[in-house]
Amino acid sequence: MLYRLAFLAAALAQTLDALGQDTSTSARCLALQQTLQLENTTVLDVAYIPAPTNVSTPGSCQSTAPVTSAPLCRVQFVINTTSTSAVHAEAWLPDTWFGRFLATGNGGLGGCIDYTAVDYGASLHFATFGTDNGHDGMSGLPFLNHPEVINDFAFRAIHVEAVIGKQLIEAYYGVPAAKSYYLGCSTGGRQGTQAALKFPQDFDGIVAGAPAADFNHLMGWSGMLSHFVGATAPPDAPVPDTSPKFIPAALYPMISAEILRQCDALDGLVDGIISEPDDCDFNPQALLCPENKSDNCLTAVQVQTLKNIFSPIIGEDGKVIYPRYSPGAEGDPAAPNFILGGTFFPFTADWERYVIHNVTKLDFTNFGLADIALLDKVNAGGISTFDGHMSAFRDRGGKFLTYHGRRDPLISSTNSKRVYELISKTLEMPSLDDFYRLFLIPGMGHCSGGLGPTAFGQGTAPGLNFVNASSHNILLALVDWVENDVAPATIIGSGANDTERTFCRFPMQSVYNGTTFVCVE
Ligand SMILES: *[C@@H]1O[C@H](CO)[C@@H](O)[C@H](O)[C@H]1NC(C)=O
Ligand SMILES: *[C@@H]1O[C@H](CO)[C@@H](O)[C@H](O)[C@H]1NC(C)=O
Ligand SMILES: *[C@@H]1O[C@H](CO)[C@@H](O)[C@H](O)[C@H]1NC(C)=O
Ligand SMILES: *[C@@H]1O[C@H](CO)[C@@H](O)[C@H](O)[C@H]1NC(C)=O
Ligand SMILES: *[C@@H]1O[C@H](CO)[C@@H](O)[C@H](O)[C@H]1NC(C)=O
Ligand SMILES: *[C@@H]1O[C@H](CO)[C@@H](O)[C@H](O)[C@H]1NC(C)=O
Ligand SMILES: *[C@@H]1O[C@H](CO)[C@@H](O)[C@H](O)[C@H]1NC(C)=O
Ligand SMILES: *[C@@H]1O[C@H](CO)[C@@H](O)[C@H](O)[C@H]1NC(C)=O
């Protein structure tokens, strides 16, 4: 309650004070340019944004970003993290503030403030922050021979976002944030996981979607997928793929149709969605071209390609290095056109070139298990993020919500089960329900979209028709858990035409009961 009073005091003080100084919200905002004095931090620009507008953005990521949540105070600043690295950041500080701090994460190897997420947080009255994760743009080139830039990316950018963000909030609103939250997906999901592991005091609650956890093995798996489809050309110098192993995009609809034929009914409803891809024992042999037929079918080599894609990567010791590609996820457009496309997967290519081998040119022809071993050995910036020791976060009362689309074409959702099991085993807690909940989202692609109702307030795509209720909104569900001790049993997704679907928390499964999908043990 205290923080709501502080907000009222701030909003009502739109008059001149006894000394004739302008104490309006816009004047208090603009004054930050001179008054803000935070460690290692330089204020670059301050603007008061009174109404919805498009604002320009720094760096090479986007040229404009919409603000739909006005009025707010926008502060652009840079935090020096070492003498050779810096994190550029922004604060969007809404006039109507509910006393909460929200840090947002990044995507890919970026490098880009997630303005969609920042605006989303501000629209829900969080003082919301975003950073460039220590470098500008989506390329990994800034990592080359810059270990401190790698450290920012691997763990430090979110930490300084939390430390400086909290100080900035206190400087602006006059009171500290009552609670601190984090929201991110993909790389952002890894950053949230890393925050809970390395800086357990930074956040009271974390939403970490589709985490790029076990990062070294994820890079290795993505590289192996390129290897399986015979795509060895560097992403920035593409050559037409001529490998017999390659499967052209035009063949994927046929492959998806066969996968659905074999597995769509497993969850009880034939609707184009495989709710539990780990139950799908897809046999690609059915697609082999019969004698004298060559169109709309696969060669024996291509059948083997599919077998490789849909098998886990196993190390020489027989242990799983990374789970398999989820059957059904190949139907997402990012599968044939990106991760299973005709050039070596760009994120792995950049990490291999600029971080592991420290060169600008590298031959990806023989990418294999030895490369994965080297990724592990270098573990640049301690980026692995595959560690079950979350007791410090649990013991400080932290709450962790994670979700993963079961049709995710870029990061296997099975890995999120694997992370759950690692934490469970490490902490000797058969159920993590007390502080950590994983929601698997049937039909959803990478972080959002896909098939069926997959909008639940994750803030990752503009215009998601989020519902302002904790039952339907994972960020508000987190707030309810942290502030009212009400943990979400389910999350309800919304979609077109007022459709909804209930998402189950792991290890419960989503099964059709003849009327609707229900969660069963
Ligand atoms: C940050 O680093 C830059 C470049 O090295 C330097 O000019 C600036 O003074 C530093 N700012 C702070 C606040 O330390
Ligand atoms: C922002 O720019 C887009 C594209 O130019 C335009 O459609 C939209 O109306 C603008 N929004 C505002 C609030 O000005
Ligand atoms: C400021 O930077 C120095 C290193 O340059 C670091 O040791 C210190 O922790 C930083 N302070 C904050 C608040 O990040
Ligand atoms: C969401 O609902 C709460 C009341 O439950 C209200 O205070 C808040 O303004 C609403 N937020 C938005 C963005 O509509
Ligand atoms: C395939 O084509 C060859 C050559 O035309 C022919 O001899 C053979 O009978 C055909 N096989 C089938 C199964 O049609
Ligand atoms: C590349 O640099 C990293 C440090 O950033 C180092 O760990 C790695 O061994 C270097 N690789 C080679 C091949 O020298
Ligand atoms: C929504 O309903 C309209 C009208 O029935 C239909 O044309 C459209 O395809 C539906 N959208 C989805 C995503 O189901
Ligand atoms: C399926 O579950 C829903 C929600 O629990 C319930 O209302 C409905 O009666 C169930 N249908 C059947 C056929 O069991």
Automatic annotation (TrEMBL):
This is Carboxylic ester hydrolase. It is an enzyme of class 3 (hydrolase). Its EC number is 3.1.1.-. InterPro entries: AB_hydrolase_fold (IPR029058), Tannase/feruloyl_esterase (IPR011118). Residues 1-20 form the signal peptide. One of its GO terms (biological process) is xylan catabolic process. Coiled coil: none annotated. The keyword Hydrolase applies. The keyword Disulfide bond applies. SUPFAM superfamilies: alpha/beta-Hydrolases.
